[in-house]
Write a structure and sequence with these properties.
This protein has 263 residues and is an alpha/beta fold. It has nine helices and six strands. β5 and β6 form a beta hairpin.
Length: 263
Amino acid sequence: MSSRCYNNKTCGGLQNVVDISSQRPLELDITYVCDMACLQCNRALGLIGSHEMMTIDQVSRVLHESASMQRPYLEIRVLGGEPTLHPHLSGIVDTLDWYRRQVGNCSVSLWTHGHGEQVKQEIGKLPAWIRIRVSAKQPKVVGEGFDAFLAAPLDYQESHAQDYWNGCGQIAPGRCGIGVSPYGVYSCPCAAAIDRIVGLDIGLTSLTDACDERFRKQCDQLCRYCGHFLVDRGVQVSTETVSDTWQVLRDRYRTHRPRLVRY
């Protein structure tokens, strides 16, 4: 362990997450369904699509866990996939309404590509207290506006493998939040999306279990697949890249999709 870097200024990632976690947003990937097929989607949905989604009960569980904490999460982001395509979005909204009333001083946002009539109709049904964040992406975008997410660091000699333990700048406070997926709690939503494909099944089973050590262990195993890690360390990779490891993962997923324990 002595070879690992713990300089947050250098690595830009985890540092005492157990102390700062409530300052980060809680990001709920309520569905992995998406109709865009963007190649470098950082949920890997353009390469390996999915119909997996969180249930209302799962959303309720994580929000109740947060509400029970001494410092509950004060920013909730609803994402995907395309969250407006969740068939039970209205029930999830009701659960979020309970949470914001319970906690107080809580902001809730929904992040959408805003494309298509169904999506626009669902956006129109949302209450005014939900802030809508529209990316305005176009369908089947290849690389524009994306990092090369599908460039697995383990395929590159300059990947700084000893630093996986630290994560990357995406999980620094003020950027990416703590990820929650159908399969548990993760250091970030990208890690959750990677685990659904790699199949390590290392999501935390309770939000109250979140701590620096457990998130570092997730990063150590999952950041080696994430192109954000390379970008964070200045490695230049084309946004049309699908590295060898991701090609293997895609082919394996088609025939042997991992079965993870649900949250």
